[in-house]
TrEMBL record:
Domain of life of the native organism: Eukaryota
Presence of keyword Cell division: no
UniProt keyword list: Methyltransferase, Transferase, WD repeat
Protein name: Compass-like h3k4 histone methylase component wdr5b
PROSITE patterns: WD_REPEATS_2, WD_REPEATS_REGION
GO molecular function, one term: methyltransferase activity
WD repeats: 207-240
PANTHER family (alphabetical): CARBOHYDRATE BINDING DOMAIN CONTAINING PROTEIN, F-BOX AND WD-40 DOMAIN PROTEIN 7
Organism expressing this protein natively: Plakobranchus ocellatus
C-alpha cells in the first residue's frame, strides 16, 4: 500500500456500524472528518450505520447482493465494488452515483464472488487505452482485465482454482495471484502470460512456501521484487518474485481475507487474523519478528477479515463475531467498547486524505463464511 499523507488523527477514533434491521446493507462509504471537526455524536440512519468518535458518515450505497471487496482508484475518482454474484460496479465517490458496470457472459453464468480488485497504474505518456483498467479476481478462478468505462473485458486468465488474492508490483509491470492452492502465480501485465510460479518445495523439513489457502498478497513498495503472503497455515511468507520458493517467513497470523499490509515509511507489517485472540498484530518487516499486539476491547471481540494502515498514524480493520469496523491510533492503541454491525469484509482508503470505504455483508452466515470454509 502506498504511504499516502494524512492529517494526524485524534488519539482514538472508532467507527461502529450497526444495522437496525436484518435488511441488506450493501456498502458503507464513510469519510474521516478533518481533525478540526467536532463531529463526535452518535448518528443513525434507517439502514444502519452507527457511528461513534470523530467520524462523519459521508454516504451509504445499498446494493442487491453481498459486497466482497471494494477499491478506490489511485486518484480517488472512482470506487469499484465487487459483489457476491460476480458483478463489479464503479461509483463516483463524490456523489455515490453508479457510473459503470463490469459483467460478461462468464460472470453472469458462474455468479461466483469477486474476491479482489486492483486498478492498473496509469503513467503519463502511456497509451490512452491503458487508462481506466481494473483487474479483478474471482472465486471461479478467473482473473479479468476490464476497461471499466466501456464495460469491456479485455482479457481473461483462467487459473482453474478459486483465486482469492491479487496484487500489482510497485512498477506496475506484473500481477501476482494466489488462492485455494499453495501456488502463487506471476503474470506479465502487458502480455498476460505467466512468467513464474512460486510454491513450496517437496521437503518436509523446511517450510519455504504455503501449505494451505492463501488469502492475501502484498508487495513492499520499497522493494520491487519482494512481496509477502498469508493464509490458513498461520505463516507470513516472504517471496522474491524471480525465485520459486519463499526466502523467509514468520509464524502467527491466521488470515482469511485482505488483512495484510506494509507501511513503507516504518517498514512495519500489519496483520489481521480470523480468530478469538491476538487478532491485530504489528511486525518488523526486516527482522520478521512481532513488535506488538494491538489490544481488543475486553468485552467485545471481533475476528478480522481485513486490516490496513490508514496513513502513517492509524489503523483501520473490520471483521465478524462482534462485527466492528474501527480506526485506531497507532501510537496509543486505545480501545473502547464496540457495537454490533453487519459483517465487514473489506476496508480501503482513498487517495484523498480523510476518506475511506467499507464493504459489509447483509448476513453473517453468507458468502464470506462459505468462501472461507470451502
Amino acid at each position: 500500500m502506498s504511504g499516502d499523507s494524512y492529517s494526524v488523527l485524534p488519539d482514538f477514533q472508532e467507527l461502529r456500524i450497526r444495522s437496525d434491521s436484518q435488511g441488506d446493507v450493501g456498502s458503507e462509504v464513510s469519510s474521516l472528518s478533518h481533525r478540526s471537526s467536532l463531529f463526535s455524536h452518535t448518528t443513525k440512519t434507517k439502514s444502519g450505520p452507527h457511528l461513534e468518535g470523530n467520524l462523519k458518515l459521508y454516504d451509504t450505497i445499498e446494493l442487491s447482493s453481498d459486497v466482497m471487496c471494494c477499491r478506490f482508484s489511485d486518484d480517488g475518482a472512482h470506487l469499484a465494488v465487487g459483489m457476491c454474484d460476480g458483478t463489479i460496479k464503479v461509483y463516483n465517490p463524490a456523489n455515490c452515483q453508479q457510473l459503470y458496470t463490469c459483467q460478461d457472459e462468464d460472470t453472469s453464468k458462474n455468479r461466483l464472488p469477486v474476491t479482489q480488485i486492483r486498478f492498473r497504474p496509469f503513467v503519463d505518456g502511456e497509451k490512452v487505452e491503458y487508462s481506466h483498467i481494473l483487474i479483478a479476481s474471482y472465486a471461479s478462478g478467473h482473473v479479468k482485465f476490464w476497461h471499466y468505462t466501456s464495460g469491456k473485458c479485455l482479457q481473461t486468465i483462467d487459473e482453474v482454482r478459486q483465486t482469492l488474492a491479487l496484487t500489482i508490483n510497485p512498477e506496475g509491470t506484473h500481477i501476482i495471484t494466489a488462492g485455494a492452492e499453495p501456488q502463487i502465480h506471476k503474470y506479465d501485465m502487458e502480455t498476460k502470460q505467466k512468467v513464474n510460479t512460486m510454491e513450496p518445495s517437496d521437503s518436509h523439513d523446511i517450510m519455504d512456501g504455503h501449505r494451505f489457502r492463501v488469502f492475501a498478497v502484498q508487495y513492499n513498495p520499497n522493494h520491487p521484487h519482494v512481496f509477502i503472503s498469508g493464509g490458513w497455515d498461520d505463516t507470513v511468507q516472504y517471496w522474491d518474485d524471480r525465485k520459486v520458493h519463499s526466502v523467509k517467513k514468520f509464524i502467527g497470523p491466521h488470515l482469511c481475507g485482505d488483512a495484510l499490509d506494509i507501511d513503507p515509511v516504518h517498514n512495519h507489517i500489519l496483520t489481521g487474523s480470523w480468530r478469538k485472540t491476538h487478532v491485530l498484530q504489528i511486525w518488523d518487516f526486516a527482522m520478521a519478528v512481532k513488535i506488538k499486539d494491538v489490544p481488543q476491547d475486553t468485552l467485545n471481540h471481533s475476528q478480522l477479515y481485513c486490516a490496513q494502515w490508514l496513513g502513517k498514524d492509524s489503523i483501520i480493520c473490520g471483521g465478524t463475531d462482534q462485527n466492528m469496523a474501527r480506526t485506531i491510533d497507532r501510537g496509543t492503541l486505545n480501545v473502547s467498547p464496540n457495537d454490533q454491525l453487519q459483517l465487514v469484509y473489506s476496508v480501503v482508503r482513498q487517495g484523498i486524505p480523510h476518506m475511506l470505504g467499507l464493504s459489509s455483508m447483509a448476513s453473517r452466515s453468507s458468502s464470506a463464511e462459505k468462501l472461507r470454509q470451502k
